[in-house]
Amino acid sequence: MSREVVCRASPSLALVKYWGKKPGRGNRPATPSLAVTLGGITTETRVRLAPAHGHTDTVVLNGQTQPPERFRPFFESLRRRVRRRSSAQGDLPFFDVDSRNDFPSAAGLASSSSGFAALALGCSRAAGLELSVRELSALARLGSASAARSLFGGFTLLPAGGRSARQLHPPQHWPELRILVVVVSEQAKPISSRRAMEATRGSSPYYRAWLRDAAALLPRALEALRRRDLEALGEAALVSYSRMHAAMIAAGPPVLYWLPGTVAAIHECRRLRAEGIGAWETLDAGPQVKILCLAPDVAAIAERLRRLPELGPSVRLLEARPGEGPVCGVTGE
User: Fold this and answer.
1) 282 SS3 class
2) Cβ contact 78:124 at 8 Å
3) Residue 181 parent element (H or E)
4) Cα angle vertex 114, ends 185, 295, to 5°?
5) In terms of Cα–Cα distance, which of 236, 194, 229 is closest to 215?
6) What are the tens digits of pLDDT across the range 110-131?
7) Is residue 60 exposed (0-12), middle (13-18) or buried (19+ Cβ within 10 Å)?
8) pLDDT in tens, 76-89
């Protein structure tokens, strides 16, 4: 029982946004999403098999025990896979999980994507399952649709309604690309992405237009990524996040995550672009701003952000680059 599986995964940042779920069970996305894995930002997850006959899964995140219902579909699906693939008779496995992020959790930085990616790989290895990356992607999706993308490094696509994601390009496709993450707030967001998606779907008059537009925007972004065209990809990312948030703000009541620092960073990126510096912002469900740029411009962009009164010189900035997929190891006996 001392055997422990340790996995590390990075979050997946959608450039063309996923926002909305297909009706029914399975946690399938209603929109396609094009994303990059954020190398240098990490979730570390430690997994042990629970004591025999415990029949309880326990997940601790940053020292806090998590609600079991959030993870139940994931663990039930994993145990069904164990049952199908194991010829041995006996109790099905349950898991003790301890996970930590080196970035704010539940704050709009896609912590669920890296969290469930690491969980899928770690728990399957602890249970003795050797799943393909496609199978792991489909398993992680049950906990978080964006986690389906985090099983891959580099640049990924999760189609609308997809069971699993696929890699489009490895990290080496664009080695000079950087993503500067502006941590506007360390606090967890006031409404979860799942609740916010449901509120948008149920009450925003722009939701159906958002679904159509997200699909129409994808080819433009794919071509920009293929050509490594920062301006074209940045413009597509800007349109995607703006229209996603427009649909959210139009919900009743409005879903609005932005803070003064969010708005200040958006305006600063516009000023930088007007001066010829490629700084293209994007936002998920939260106040944090992520800026697509090239490596030589990171220092200048960071300096300008620290001058903003709404952020200040002590603002936390995280520099990421296209990263690899999860890695896993075993400690103990």
Assistant:
1) strand
2) yes
3) strand 177-183
4) 70
5) 236
6) 899 999 999 999 999 999 999 9
7) middle
8) 999 999 988 776 55
